[in-house]
């Protein structure tokens, strides 16, 4: 089977959050600027995107937005970055995508800025692109089994059926797949969205009900970097990888 080209040349990086779990490091800087292995979290994401052929990135900013904007302005390498300004109101993940919609093509990649991953046989953008079907999907989530996750202590997020359709973890049970924070999104997902701040979970729930939320299992490794205690083991893991 021949490889498909990337489904989009644009990625949105969600970087507007308050970073409460990363305190005290976020008392003086936004979470995306916290450094891991000598590089800020957002540069880890942007550098991966650029290396995979992503030409454009949209980064939303709210908490300490001036510092994040200043950092992005001095970046020289791909992708080219545009700012989606949320200084007036923190819009959460779903509201952030809606605010940035005019800057985004259809479809677009969307990434959280607080995780680090190692690609498998192909990069994550190609992994998603290979499985993308715009006729059937409103969003395609990159998920990872517990055995390929580092610094994760939860019970998982999702199940996948034989066709790759997503369902949520049942209460008090363990789900086999963890959401990596990386997805490929059709603008159809954003239709009739609530106004103001809301979670992407609102849109995912509708897509699940309609059978249009899909997932693909990441073939590489993934690391959650949500707290200061995760930084040292992540750096050690990257050294060994």
From TrEMBL:
Keyword Transferase attached: yes
Domain Nucleotidyl transferase: 11-152
CDD domains xrefs: NTP_transferase_like_1
Keyword Transport: no
One of the record's GO molecular function terms: nucleotidyltransferase activity
Key words of the record: Nucleotidyltransferase, Transferase
Protein's UniProt name: Mannose-1-phosphate guanylyltransferase
Organism in which the protein naturally occurs: Novosphingobium barchaimii LL02
């Amino acid at each position: 089977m021949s490889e498909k080209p990337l489904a989009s040349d644009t990625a949105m990086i969600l970087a507007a959050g308050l970073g409460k779990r990363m305190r005290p490091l976020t008392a003086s800087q936004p979470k995306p600027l916290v450094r891991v292995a000598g590089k800020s979290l957002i540069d880890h994401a942007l550098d991966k995107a650029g290396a995979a052929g992503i030409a454009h990135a949209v980064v939303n900013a709210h908490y300490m937005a001036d510092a994040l904007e200043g950092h992005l302005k001095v970046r020289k390498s791909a992708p080219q970055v545009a700012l989606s300004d949320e200084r007036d109101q923190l819009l959460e993940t779903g509201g952030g995508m809606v605010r940035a919609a005019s800057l985004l093509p259809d479809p677009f990649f969307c990434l959280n800025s607080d995780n680090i991953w190692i690609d498998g046989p192909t990069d994550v953008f190609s992994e998603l692109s290979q499985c993308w079907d715009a006729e059937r999907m409103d969003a395609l989530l990159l998920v990872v089994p517990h055995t390929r996750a580092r610094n994760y202590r939860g019970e998982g997020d999702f199940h996948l059926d034989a066709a790759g359709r997503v369902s949520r973890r049942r209460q008090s049970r363990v789900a086999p797949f963890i959401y990596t924070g990386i997805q490929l999104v059709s603008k159809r997902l954003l239709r009739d969205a609530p106004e103001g701040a809301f979670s992407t979970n609102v849109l995912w729930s509708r897509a699940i009900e309609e059978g249009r939320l899909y997932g693909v299992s990441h073939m590489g490794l993934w690391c959650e970097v949500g707290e200061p205690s995760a930084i040292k083991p992540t750096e050690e893991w990257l050294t060994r990888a």
